[in-house]
Amino acid sequence: MKQALIIIDVQNDYFPEGKFPLINTESALTNTLHLQHDFRIKKLPIFYIQHFKQGSNADFFVKDSVGAELHPKLLPISEENELIIQKSYPNSFYQTDLHQKLQQHSVKQLVICGMMSYMCVDSTTRCANELGYQPILIHDACTTRDLEFNDEIIPAKKVHYSFMSALAGFAKVINCHEFIQKKID
User: Fold this and answer.
1) Rounded to two decimals, what is the model's pTM?
2) Which of 65, 94, 122, 175 is deepest in the core (most CB within 10 A)?
3) 3-state SS, one letter per residue, for 138-166
């Protein structure tokens, strides 16, 4: 079954010097780079999802800003099997040509990683399942941030684990090492 790697929103604004830093971005990036290397060796397609905020009140991921650029460690992107898909909504399929590009590459299964667990990773993984892509979600190549609800701070680790456990109903949720070593499909 032909796989593709989907790398969601690994952009500069999510890193410590950015406008909207997340927790443990370097660790998630390291595992993303391992996945990228594995897919490049296998000559399988890699799709980089790049989010741009819309409107004059956009506080991060502003089009044409350094913060909206893909993290430099992901570059350079090979022209043959690697594509950038730009989006303006959490779901990487919504109002993009991602689904069509995946079909053009005869992709049957998606391996998903990226940022943020509770937002774009969540909605893209659920949609991938609904479209029949049998997603594999690499939990240690994803990250998030602390959230607040009802005047309580929910630590990023608990946010992440909660979403990964919920997404286990829509995807096979495993770690990077397990995927690369066991060639899970």
Assistant:
1) 0.96
2) 122
3) EEEEEECCCEEECCEEECHHHHHHHHHHH
